Amino acid sequence: MSSKKVLILVNHDVVIYNFRLELVERLLWEEYEVYISSPYGERIDDLVEIGCHHIEADVNRHGLNLFQEWKLLRYYKKIMKETAPDIVLTYTIKPNIYGGIAAKSLNIPYIANITGLGTAMENGGLVQKVSIALYKISFKNLSKVFFQNKENQQFFIDHNIAVGKHQQVPGSGVNLNHFSLLDYPESSTVEFIFISRIMKEKGIDQYLEAAEYIREKYPYTRFHILGFCEEDYYKTLEKLHDNDIIQYHGMQRDIRKFLFKTHCTIHPTYYPEGMSNVLLESAASGRPIITTNRSGCREIVDNGMNGFIVKQQNSQDLIDKIEMFLKHSHEVKEKMGLAGRKKVEREFDRKIVVDAYMNQIKKETGW
Fold it and tell me: pTM above 0.70?
């Protein structure tokens, strides 16, 4: 029997390697032939090495150039005709929409994943109306759409998009072996960390304001930042780094060595998250978390048990919660971290997500 083919459409190599690797490995182990279409990145070589085929794509994640969008749709149709996949898996907005339209036009089963609505969709206006119309077209004949949180699913229900094809999964889940429980640091210095793309909507301004205030009042604290500067914050970070307010480490391939020495992860985002992987990975590592009261974040926090929830875009509330955390004893902080680990073990194991996908893929491909 010849292998069944799976084509995966993503907008970045990290999306597939960091959050879908276990699914890819399972597909390969069960003798599916796996094709990945994405822009080239360093993780593509790792995926090819384990047996995947890579098809390079030009996906502008933020652009709204109509010609580029049309080219991407045509490109997806072209590679689907060439590879003849038995099923297509799509992640993130543009692959979901244009990959969905291409698969629908060629009568290929496809499964989409809503990893977040995106700012334009959440803020309303013309872009939201156009996006809703495109989702209705692209999702008309899809096999299944996985949602990472209830709020995103409700949006699709409210706009009558693919109703009856919905299924919720616990985000991307977290690999509990890769992000194993770490010993809680014994150091007298209390270290906080922000891990994200450096952009306004991820709450970097609130984090920096809190860092300035807390560092002056509590000199035994440290504030770390990991992530690529997606917006124009580099000079600000450089100045604060030179003034010993923060320590900026840039983009890091493996965050575990930083989680090993930090006491708490702060994620003050107000970006439309699907489910925050940073929070899942931090909680799995036994680190308390402080994050905003919004969908994709609040699900991971039992307030006061494994972390604290703060108001969006509210630096003072973030400062208050950091001070509350600092007042806890080392033993209480450690217990908060353990509570977070137990929560992700119960609710966010990546195996749950992989099993959901494999069940649907087998249903569609007949394997």
Answer: yes
